[in-house]
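User: Before I run my own analysis I want an independent prediction to cross-check against. Here's the chain; please return only the structure tokens and, at the end, one sentence I can use as a sanity check.
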Amino acid sequence: MYYETALDRWKRFTYVEDLPDELGPFRKLLEEYSKVPPNETDELLVSTRKKLWEVAMYPCIGRWSFLNLRSMQDSHFKIAFDRLKQPNDPDTGSNSADTLLDIGCCIGQVLRKMVHDGIEPNRLFGTDLHPEFISIGTELFNDEGCGLTFVAGDLLDPEDKALDKLDGKITLIHAANFFHLFTWEQQVKIGVRIVGFLKPGTNDALIFGRQIGTHRPRERDGKKKSFLHNQESFQKLWDEVGMKTETRWRVQVSISEERRVDIPGFGEEDRYTRFGIYQCTV
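Assistant: Structure tokens:
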């Protein structure tokens, strides 16, 4: 008799063997940005996913969703693009320019797409817990020395000084499939750390992205606990971050009702969401 292990069950729900059909934009990025021949893109993607899965078995890796660039059609990306395309102010120098940090950047696919679409690479930063993801991304896109800045580090570890390189340099922050990995207390710590990345004097910072949210805010049970939000609870969390950092934030959350979250550990009330967290003038 066969008994399914926890790992087997996790893979059954989070791992798809074959490449999905809707990867046209990512293939185009490889062909135009990295000059990969069209007949080599699929083999390259399969080998890249294998390397990433060996590092961390995240659903976004197993289900190929890390290759889905459709999320960049979100209205918050348009706001970020418009701000990043503004020229530097010659009177005040480059410190006046907007810059974007992609938190949990994985292979840096979002940043490469932004460069391909005309954003100066020196305005773009990425960070991930796994340095292997960053190196795998550089190998995939074949763009060592491209001008992008990547920093591997742990946002929850106060002893990890690598992320200090980002302090005082950022005005825009993208975080996809990130906050829902952590408890309320951890999310507050991360929020406080993020505020430390902002350029001095910034009063119009924008933090945006997507995550798994819920109609019933709660700490999710399981081996690894995490807190899921709706509009009200996420606002409350950022009110707490604001109190700790002497900043103010306005949160907007959009909940998708198109399909339920079919990942182990999530319930009927849990949904995919998009969010924008806007800095308010104190």
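Sanity check: The chain is about 35% helix and 20% strand.
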